[in-house]
Write a structure and sequence with these properties.
Blueprint (H helix, E strand, L loop, with lengths): L4 H6 L8 H21 L20 H5 L1 H38 L6 H10 L4 H4 L4 H21 L3 H23 L1
Length: 179
């Protein structure tokens, strides 16, 4: 998938269910998000202060009690899971609107866009690596481009135009990070 995305997406059925691609995207996020949070303070290009909420006192978990702390951690994990689910469906929805605008009646449906969007999250498995993660996130856009092109059987130009607004948002986010 990461090495030969064209072959991977050509062999993927654009129809079918949402379960496998959704689980794939959630697993990729579940692996990369905690690693990214742990290593964020060590990213020389990232913001200082880290993603681990330094305002929480070191002994907080012991002071709140194990049960209350565990319930809070479980609650946060569930909220993060719900936000990930929402983000995947919303991201695929926005991407599909772009495909509809650009491909007209010649597209393979929302399932194909959802699969391209979900499977392109494979790049997030490398996005947590300091510095290299920025290139990995851009590679995820390339994977999305290839997925849309192959699953919808649209021209490279139409696939690039469908990914361009998402790429612009990501590039502007990276530019804001470095400014």
């Amino acid at each position: 998938m990461l090495v030969r995305p064209g072959e991977y997406f050509r062999s993927t059925d654009p129809r079918g269910g949402f379960a496998a691609p959704l689980v794939f995207a959630l697993v990729c996020s579940a692996v990369s998000a905690p690693l990214g949070a742990l290593l964020a303070p060590y990213d020389p290009l990232g913001s200082r202060g880290g993603a681990l909420a330094p305002e929480v006192p070191a002994g907080w978990f012991a002071e709140t009690g194990a049960v209350a702390g565990a319930l809070l951690v479980l609650f946060v994990a569930l909220v993060v899971l719900l936000l990930l689910l929402l983000g995947i469906y919303l991201g695929a929805g926005v991407c599909h609107l772009l495909v509809l605008l650009l491909a007209g009646g010649r597209h393979a449906g929302f399932n194909a866009t959802f699969k391209a969007y979900a499977y392109s999250s494979a790049a997030s498995l490398l996005a947590w690596v300091p510095v290299a993660g920025y290139a990995a996130s851009l590679y995820g856009l390339y994977l999305l481009f290839v997925g849309l092109r192959e699953l919808h059987r649209i021209s490279p130009a139409r696939a690039a135009l469908a990914v361009a607004p998402l790429a612009l948002v990501q590039i502007l986010s990276l530019a804001a990070l470095f400014s």
